[in-house]
Structures are given as structure tokens and as C-alpha cells.
Amino acid sequence: MSRLRLLRFLGSAMLTAAMLSGVNPAASAQVVSPADRNVLIQQDQLQMLENRLRRQQYQQQQQQYRAQDRQIPTPQRQEVPQMRPTCQLLPSGSGFVSTCR
């Protein structure tokens, strides 16, 4: 019976050691003084305000881009040079004959 108790004790000790070695020291509770807490709160608030400002600037920029995309440019009429026929009126008998090249 004592051997069984010894095995149980060793087993529970090994489990406890394994659990304690897996604990992250950063995840454990930290002691923060009130002055440090105020500084942390102010830093968090500043970060939130900066993020809000960046979001607003991004949204305004997107609105400007959409407004530019909505503007429909009026197509300008292209001037195409036209060739005028070179016609001459030549007298022929009692009338005139038009000759075009």
C-alpha cells in the first residue's frame, strides 16, 4: 500500500511540475503603482485617438478618390482635317464643265 501511495505522490508531483513549468511569467499578474497605471491609461487613450484619426483620414481620402472617379470628363470633339476636292470650272462650248481631281 505504501508503494501505491509513493507512486501517486510522485505522479502528482510530476504533473504539478509540468503545469508550473508551462506557466508564462508574462501572463502572471503584475504589480502596477497608481502613477504607472495613470501613464498606461494615458498611453492607451493616446493610441486610441491616433487610431481614430488615422481611420478618419483614410476615410476622407477614400471619399476624395470616389468623388474623382465619379467625375465624368466631357469628351472633346476631335478636329479631323478634311480634304476639299480641287474642282475647276472649265468653259466648254456654251457652258462650263466641272472637273474634280
Strand content range: 5-15%
Mean pLDDT: 80
Task: Indicate the structural class.
Answer: mainly alpha
Uncertain segments are none
DSSP summary, beta strand count: 2
Gyration radius over CA: 46 Å
Spatial ordering of strands, largest sheet = 1-2
DSSP summary: helix tally? 2
Dominant shape = elongated
Helix amount, in percent?
Answer: 55-70%
Largest sheet composition: 2 strands, antiparallel
N- to C-terminal separation?
128 Å
Q: Strand-and-helix sequence, N→C?
A: HHEE
Characterization of this structure:
Helices cover 56% and strands 12% of the residues. The protein has helices spanning 2-21, 34-70; strands at residues 87-92, 95-100. Strands 1-2 form a two-stranded antiparallel sheet. A hairpin with a 2-residue loop joins strand 1 and strand 2. The relative contact order is 0.04.
